[in-house]
Amino acid sequence: STALDKERTATDIESIKRAFLNNLFYVQGKPVSLATQHDYYMALAYLVRDRMLHRWNGTAESYTQHRARTVCYLSAEFLMGPHLGNNLINMGIYEPVRQAMEELGLNFDTLLAQEEEPGLGNGGLGRLAACYLDSLASLEVPSVGYGIRYEFGIFEQDLRDGWQVERTDKWLRYGNPWEVVRPEWSVEVKLGGYTETYTDDQDRYRVRWVPDREVLGVPYDTPILGYQVNTANTLRLWKAEAIESFDFAVFNQGNYYGAVEQKVASENISKVLYPNDEKTAGKQLRLEQQFFFVSCSLQDMFRILKGQGMAVEQFHEKFAIQLNDTHPAIAAPELMRLLLDEHGLDWSLAWEITQKTLAYTNHTLLPEALEKWPVSLFGQLLPRHLQIIYEINNRFLDLVRMKFPKDAARLARMSLIDESGDRYVRMANLACVSSHTINGVAALHSELLKETVLRDFYELFPEKFCNKTNGVTPRRWMVLSNPRLSTLITSRIGDRWIKHLDELKAIEPLADDAGFRAEWRAIKQSVKRELAGRIHRQHGILVDPASLFDVQVKRIHEYKRQHLNVLHIVTLYSQLKQNPSLDITPRTFIFSGKAAPGYHMAKLMIKLVTAVGDMVNRDPDLRNQLKVIFLPNYNVTNSQRIYPASDLSEQISTAGFEASGTGNMKFAMNGALTIGTLDGANVEIRDAVGAENFFLFGLTAPEVVALKADGYDPYSYYQRHPMLKDAIDLIASGHFSHGDGDLFKPLLDKLLYHDPFMLLADYQAYIDCQETVGRAYSDADSWTRMAILNSVRMGSFSSDRSIAEYCSDIWKVNPFPVGLVD
Ligand code: 26V
Questions:
Q1: Which PROSITE patterns match (predicted)?
Q2: What's the angle, vertex CA 444, arms to CA 441 and CA 447, rounded to 5?
């Protein structure tokens, strides 16, 4: 191709400095004397973007020319985290850029910290999608992430008097240098209205959808660089706009405000991310969001197919679509509609293409989390899709009747329509019926799916089910977030581990090398000192970097049991108060995480942590042996500072409730030991690192089920375990709430009289296990040995391994390396 402008591609230090000053002046429009840190960040971001475009354009050109088979990862959430540092690492220019900035007298970390992270996800599910895009690009697999460009991402969290308060996330306020808008590829999306039948010119019976609204989907593209390859894939997020910014018909009648109202209504669709642990069954806007991005994405795929001269009948050969949970499951009837109504295929061919294209990942066993939409709402918004779903359902139920005659109960359970009371469309059933493959996200989770929520579907389609254990990208979660540890590892085994994480196991023998252990420990200490400094500066609390950093960071939820962690803290506190000369292993308890705004119990759990912290942190009797910190506004940026500084990773969900967890993997990779139940991926992590290097406690998933069936009586545990009674009574007395004995009553009553997540049953085992942890930590050398073994045995939890399995087992897609020409 053409000779590119060297000023926009060169990566030597002098060129970077020149490009930086050039951008500052001509792109940011600022002389150095007036520039802010944010201006510097933008100038840097644009020079990095310039250097990505060669690969991005080359990749697009190459895929198009060769009609490469492409993975389309459909997800309502992509929790990308800040792009700058990651792009520098994947491009291999982190060091020269850092040096160039320092030579200009700028603090590189301050520049990185300017970026407003795109928080377009709630937690694990959205962050998984982001790790998967990184691995897809690093494995050179042609792929597009399709989603929604929310104007407001996950809310920002403040603490006021120890309570969570939410603020809107205005991440686009100062502009987003990483995206390119492509208005020329905008698509129209229909909503509402009715359907009618007609006969076409070949006398065929056809259906037409006559909508009452239309909105425009405008694609915003972000390049996704692979690590040390030429591949740069695309994250394509859709923004909703009005088709006419102005409704002239309405305007001409003199109703200016009515015209503007329509514009506002259209743009609402991509306005804000819903917090996913809230029940959204009644939220029309949420269904509009799902349909909007799915329809835009499928129409985009048809455009690409046509552009490459391929036939509609080849759709499933060109594209493999992954449904990230049921949020995009409306893709099934929408793909059917496009094939039937817009492209004129007959039902059986359309259905075959649809099933060959779609695959579905389930991310939760909680029955209340399975999406369903009231049939009335669904029919009003998507009348044609409801018809298609009824037709899919009729044919599907015939199949069920054939395989399981005279089983009305099974038929009712499997129907795409829940008719047990008010009628609902069941999105998980729709996804199962319409997909060729269904997977869970950890071995245990995939087994439980077959036994519980998807049991009927497993009995009908056993061959569709498989497991794909989650993984996380070592580029962000080790190289970027823990540069010192990464440098230590590379100094011993070279840097291939970053792409082939299994090779970390070459470090194993060094766990017995005292010199290596000392270096490892020194790095952990210095990273802990850094976090301690930040905690002191931002929250005014002194924590001892030598203490055991005991960390639980994740969304706040009863099944994750942050309050079990608190019961342990209160138990230690109470023991120290009764015996002030007692020596325990000094601990710093760190919590962080957001509660869904409507989830009152989760908000009360935050208040409990902060209330206990307020007492514990001030009490001189404790001689600084305990500190309890709640770090506000948990997000990707903050988490990158927390994992590397952790000694102990709390993964204490009730067995059978956490589908996988991915934070558990990030902690272990960074040399934290896990205290955990046999839940989600903990099971596989323990197998990988060795049972002797993992602190296991608690009921197993079958024991949880059995105890529930036996008639679990939490109150009897309260009566039988004096330390438990003591901890609960202390909270109930108002000791942590200025004498207010009512504040935590809802939480304590739920534990004593219902306890659906069986904290009281697991309490004693947890306390005992924590005692073992404390003793283990006091032998620093043996602790470090265990930490090293944890980290270097985590090879199979790289998202590269997960993605390689999706590619070969589900998507049947091969790497397509991109060769660049200058
Ligand atoms: C949704 C809801 C909605 C109703 C109330 C309770 C509730 C609880 C959780 C959810 C989220 C379900 C989807 C999800 O985010 N799952 C997470 O996916 C991660 C990536 O696979 C996995 O590591 C986590 O274990 C899983 O919770």
A1: PHOSPHORYLASE
A2: 90
Closest ligand 1 atom to Cα of 325: 13
Contact 85, 640 (CB under 8 A): no
Q: What is the pLDDT of residues 130-165, one digit of tens each?
A: 999 999 999 999 999 999 999 999 999 999 999 999
CB atoms within 10 A of CB 782: 12
Measured in degrees and rounded to the nearest 5, phi and psi for residue 462 equal -60, -30
Q: How far apart, in Å, are the Cα atoms of 155 and each of 164, 276, 312, 337, 635?
A: 11, 12, 41, 35, 10
Angle at 521 between CA 517 and CA 523, to 5 degrees: 120
Q: Are strands 417-418 and 424-426 parallel, antiparallel or unpaired?
A: antiparallel
Q: Are 140 and 818 in contact (CB under 8 A)?
A: yes
ipTM: 0.97
Predicted confidence band of residue 1 (pLDDT cuts 50, 70, 90): very low
Helix (H, G, I), strand (E, B) or coil at 483: helix
Between the CA of 809 and the centroid of ligand 1 the distance, in Å, is 24
Active-site residue, selected from the candidate residues 239, 517, 560, 750:
560
Residue 541's pLDDT band (cuts 50, 70, 90): very high
Catalytic residue among 555, 587, 603, 735: 555
Q: Mention every residue, 6+ apart, whose C-beta is less than 8 A from residue 613.
A: 589, 627, 628, 629, 630
Considering the entire predicted model, what is its pTM? Answer: 0.97
363 is catalytic: yes
Q: Is the CB of 297 under 6 A from ligand 1?
A: no
Q: Is 147 touching ligand 1 by the criterion CB < 6 Å? A: no
Q: Which two tokens stand for residue 129?
A: 């999608």
Give the model confidence (pLDDT) of 353-399 as tens digits.
999 999 999 999 998 889 999 999 999 999 999 999 999 999 999 99
Using DSSP bridges, classify how beta strands 213-225 and 187-191 pair: parallel, antiparallel or unpaired: antiparallel
CA trace torsion 392, 393, 399, 403 (10° rounding): 150
Are residues 641 and 529 in contact, defined by beta-carbon separation less than 8 angstroms?
Answer: no
Q: What is the rounded distance in angstroms from the CA atom of residue 643 to the CA atom of residue 631?
A: 13
What are 190's two structure tokens? 């229909």
544 token code pair: 């001892």
Residue of the CA atom closest to atom 6 of ligand 1: 277
> What tokens appear for 716 in the block?
């009897």
pLDDT value of residue 382: 98
Distance of alpha carbon 314 from alpha carbon 795, whole angstroms: 37
- CA 704 vs. chain centroid, Å, equals 27
